[in-house]
Design brief:
heterodimer, A: about 475 residues, mainly alpha, two-stranded antiparallel ribbon, 20 helices, about 0% strand, B: about 500 residues, 21 helices
Chain lengths: ~475, ~500
């Protein structure tokens, strides 16, 4: 029993251990930021590597906590994303006063997400979700000198609290009608009764807030713009990814009896999210806001995949999030370097970027192409598989509108590419020397973008796991 | 014959270019790679003919199939028939010629040649794919290089043209994508040959055919989605214009034929009147629009709209001869337009203007370039002895075989457009190379060795098809027959 406890909770325990190590590090003698950052990044790599060994399937705490190969894989994706973000924020954190606190907050948040992904019970799910959100709000405030950063934190905490309220209301109604919170037992008590549907809608509204699906997307742009780039990338990749990971089994298992209802809801929300995200992204000048809206549109595409309700849908969602980690983080990596070292964040600042920084330009371009879904970048495969899964329902109008929206998204991604390569500028951003760690992360992202799609075994592996819904 | 070589060679060339330094190394690498590619293509042609002579009558030769995404039944499946080989030869010639005319491209030369090679890789992959996913993959691979080539190295309102082209082509591929989804879920496969053997119900065909045909049609300048053609061609640098007209628009024509018509022949039959209507409009409208142009590149671009209309017309008529003619026209138009753009590029790089009224008497100072220009022009207006005549004649003959009265009327209209073509071609050619010459053109030089070589390669192709059409007919006939068999099934079922 005890060894099983340790093995199943391994990934959570490793993170907890790192948190405590960092606490001791903080209490010990003063160290330079560089050495602390090196230690942390090594630890995070160990954390990532540990996730690949000695995993088992099983449940503990009376089915509150469960784990299987797919869940372990999802946690590894999040670990990888967090490690990449940490490498990328090196340039920014080097001069920051509170490096360790920053990591304490984000690691705690990551721990919460792990519990959320592993949850087999709505209560556990809620605890994990809250544990992941509250530290994030504090982290959003980490550009201590900027007022915008505080504003972002405030907006994040208030909107999260509101969405958590909705979520809790939904959960309590589910408990009221079914008398249980276990994913496995809920389906037996659910039917297409209006009260049950109301419970689901409230529950789903809370989730929609977290993944910033329309119409609950309004907080996204402001928070993304105000928060430090590292937190923005954490919010847009790790945080969204985690909620989507857990959304799929909850929909497919716990709310299985309401499949007809949630398909219609997802259908409408996916289209609205894609269209509105695209339309707003067209007009953005600040790159972080731009990526915020583009990420809203991406969530719309993911929802198309979720709506499939099949193993292929599940596999395509997990695969897309892996691809999204690489693509989005490559883009954020370049933006965070430019923001930290040149202090510029606008599309217009990037005019003539290629003349001074060819390496960063190509990375950003390839990342944007991957986000736009252009082959041979992995994003092409990701989008293709999401839509292919969604099309299994036979709703070709949904697929057509989504496909045509890819053209719209193409326009705004190309706008940035155009600024980088084609527009001339008297004073382009001066040449940036990229430190080693961020460079490493950019190379990893690049390899990921090129290989994840072309090397078919990644998708096939995820697909083979997704049978164990 | 290993077909994957056709994809690997450009890939290797592109990677080598990345490690080269300076224009001299880069262009040599690109030239060596593209010549090797041409050699492989010719070798492919020879071994294809040897196979056919040995009595191998399977529709596709040199097939190879490997699982790619096994859980979704996606395979890397390649193979060729005569039509694809004709397209591959066309691509290879245009690529060599395009690289030769860009011999002195010193602005970001490494990126330039890298993108050219990448574009050609997309085209090769597209033409040899027998799996719809692979086909779609390569179709999209070829889009982005065009955007960058026009936007970075272009002239005039290049950003606008590049964006317009990229968005319209992406729109086209989005439509194709939806169609492919439909076919996939109807037949459970992405495999071209397998789908061809699975009957698809008429209403399903009718729903998805427009998506596929329109999508590919955008690539092939189908009216009213031709608007990217003039702007894109006019703004692109010379080599990119050649690639666009010579290769990229052929992706569309090939897709209309191989995917839309071959897989959904019933719908092709049902919708043929719309296709022919649009094609006729494109032919007439393109010809008259060309009359109004004064910029040489716009002249050639609008005439491309008109000439590509013949391709669509040939496909829409659905007779054996007309489809044969459509393929011939694709090859012929590819060579001829590439030659035309090469000549325009050579003239422009010397005179720094493309306006017809500012040019004149160039024959005196640059006899070679002027001759090339005349040959391209005469081929374009369909003079016997050049490929244009053979191709257009075949399309007209094939179209006339379709007994429907209205279709014959469309054929007559299309034929009549040749008169208009003659007017604008002769006017442009005459004004440019004859007549009085402006004094400051007197010091200009004639073509350099690389330009001569580029033009020669294309002219050889044009003349070869022109004087010995049976050679290429032999090549593409079996391919046409495969498609006609599908169409025939569709017609007899009625």
């Amino acid at each position: 029993m005890v060894t099983e406890f340790f093995i199943l909770l391994k990934q959570e325990l490793v993170i907890t251990a790192i948190v405590f190590l960092l606490l001791f590090l903080k209490l010990g003698k003063d160290r330079s930021n560089e050495s602390v950052l090196t230690i942390v990044n090594v630890l995070l790599f160990v954390n990532l590597a540990a996730g690949f060994f000695g995993n088992q399937e099983g449940t503990i705490f009376n089915d509150m906590f469960r784990t299987n190969s797919l869940i372990v894989f999802e946690k590894n994706i999040l670990n990888l994303a967090f490690w990449l973000i940490s490498l990328q924020s090196y340039a920014w954190l080097r001069t920051h006063k509170h490096v360790i606190e920053f990591y304490l907050l984000l690691l705690t948040s990551l721990l919460g997400m792990f519990f959320m992904i592993s949850s087999g019970n709505l209560l556990m799910f809620y605890l994990g979700l809250e544990m992941s959100t509250i530290p994030l709000a504090a982290a959003a405030n980490f550009d201590l000198a900027k007022r915008q950063s505080s504003e972002a934190a405030m907006k994040l905490i208030i909107s999260s609290a509101f969405s958590s309220g909705l979520l809790l209301f939904g959960i309590s109604l589910v408990y009221g009608v079914s008398g249980t919170l276990l994913f496995n037992e809920i389906p037996a008590h659910l039917s297409a009764d209006p009260l049950h549907i109301l419970a689901f809608i409230l529950f789903f509204s809370g989730i929609a807030f977290k993944i910033s699906a329309v119409p609950f997307h309004l907080w996204t742009a402001d928070v993304y713009e105000g928060a430090p780039v590292a937190v923005t990338s954490f919010l847009s990749v790790v945080s969204k990814g985690a909620v989507l990971f857990v959304l799929v089994p909850i929909l497919y298992r716990a709310f299985q009896p309401l499949a007809g209802t949630w398909y219609n809801i997802l259908f409408v929300l996916a289209l609205a999210t894609i269209i509105i995200g695209n339309l707003f992204a067209i007009r953005q000048n600040n790159l972080k806001r731009f990526l915020a809206f583009s990420s809203i549109a991406q969530v719309g595409f993911i929802l198309v995949g979720v709506s499939a309700g099949s193993p292929a849908g599940m596999a395509s969602v997990v695969f897309f999030i892996l691809v999204y980690v690489f693509s989005n983080l490559a883009a954020f990596g370049v933006i965070s370097l430019v923001s930290a070292l040149a202090g510029k964040e606008n599309v217009t600042d990037y005019k003539g970027f290629y003349t001074t920084n060819p390496f960063l330009s190509w990375i950003l371009t390839i990342a944007l192409f991957s986000l736009a879904g252009v082959p041979p970048a992995a994003g092409f495969f990701g989008k293709f598989f999401l839509l292919i899964a969604g099309a299994a329902r036979g709703n070709y109008w949904l697929i057509s509108i989504a496909a045509l929206n890819m053209v719209v998204s193409f326009y705004y991604y190309l706008r940035v590419v155009k600024a980088i390569f084609m527009d001339s500028n008297e004073q382009p951003i001066s040449r940036i020397t990229v430190p080693v760690l961020p460079k490493l992360s950019l190379y990893i992202c690049l390899v990921g973008i090129i290989l994840t799609g072309l090397a078919s075994f990644v998708y096939d592996y995820i697909y083979s796991l997704s049978y164990g819904l | 014959m290993n077909l994957s070589l056709l994809i690997l060679l450009p890939l290797v060339t592109a990677l080598v270019i990345l490690f080269c330094n300076g224009l001299k190394q880069v262009r040599v690498a690109a030239l060596v790679g593209s010549v090797a590619q041409l050699a492989v293509s010719v070798r492919l042609l020879l071994s294809y003919q040897a196979e056919r002579a040995a009595g191998n009558h399977s529709p596709m030769l040199f097939e190879s199939k490997q699982e790619w995404f096994s859980s979704l039944h996606i395979n890397y499946h390649i193979g060729v028939d005569g039509i694809s080989i004709a397209m591959i030869l066309l691509t290879a010639s245009v690529v060599v010629a395009g690289i030769l005319v860009s011999w002195t491209m010193d602005k970001l030369s490494k990126e330039f040649f890298f993108l050219l090679i990448l574009l050609s890789m997309g085209a090769y992959g597209f033409f040899i794919s027998l799996d719809l996913f692979t086909l779609f993959f390569f179709l999209e691979v070829a889009v982005i290089p065009k955007f960058l080539l026009i936007g970075i190295w272009g002239s005039g309102k290049k950003e606008y043209s590049a964006m317009k082209l990229a968005l319209m082509l992406m729109g086209g591929s989005a439509l194709v994508f939806v169609g492919l989804m439909g076919v996939y879920y109807q037949t459970g496969s992405f495999d071209l040959m397998q789908i061809a053997n699975t009957p698809i119900p008429l209403d399903v065909q009718k729903f998805f055919f427009p998506f596929v045909f329109l999508g590919f049609g955008i690539f092939a300048a189908l009216f009213p989605f031709h608007t990217w053609v003039p702007d894109g061609h006019a703004s692109a640098p010379t080599a990119a214009s050649m690639f666009l007209a010579g290769i990229s628009m052929k992706l569309g024509g090939y897709g209309c034929l191989r995917v839309a018509t071959y897989l959904m022949p019933d719908a092709a039959h049902a919708y043929s009147w719309i296709i022919i209507l649009l094609a006729t409009i494109a032919i007439i409208y393109g010809a008259f629009a060309t009359m109004m142009q004064t910029d040489l590149k716009y002249i050639n671009a609008y005439s491309s709209v008109s000439h590509c209309g013949f391709v669509i017309l040939g496909i829409g008529m659905l007779t054996r001869t007309s489809i044969n003619g459509a393929v011939l026209q694709m090859v012929s138009h590819g060579l001829m337009t590439a030659l035309f753009f090469a000549a325009i590029g050579m003239i422009y790089s010397r005179t720094h203007t493309r306006m017809v009224q500012q040019l004149g008497g160039l024959l005196k100072v640059m006899p070679f370039i002027s001759t090339v220009f005349v040959i391209a022009g005469l081929c374009s207006l369909g003079l016997p002895g050049f490929s244009g005549f053979v191709a257009e004649m075949t399309v007209f003959m094939g179209s006339w075989q379709n007994p429907d009265g209205w279709y014959r009327f469309a054929t007559i209209l299309a034929c009549a457009s040749i008169v208009v073509t003659a007017v604008y071609i002769l006017r442009a050619v005459g004004k440019t190379i004859m007549g009085p010459m402006d004094d400051h053109y007197a010091t200009l030089t004639d073509a350099s060795w690389n330009e001569k070589l580029a033009a020669t390669i294309l002219i050889v192709g044009i003349v070869l098809i022109g004087v010995a059409p049976f050679l290429i007919n032999q090549l593409i006939m079996p391919g046409t027959d495969t498609i006609m068999m599908q169409v025939g099934k569709a017609i007899t079922q009625k």
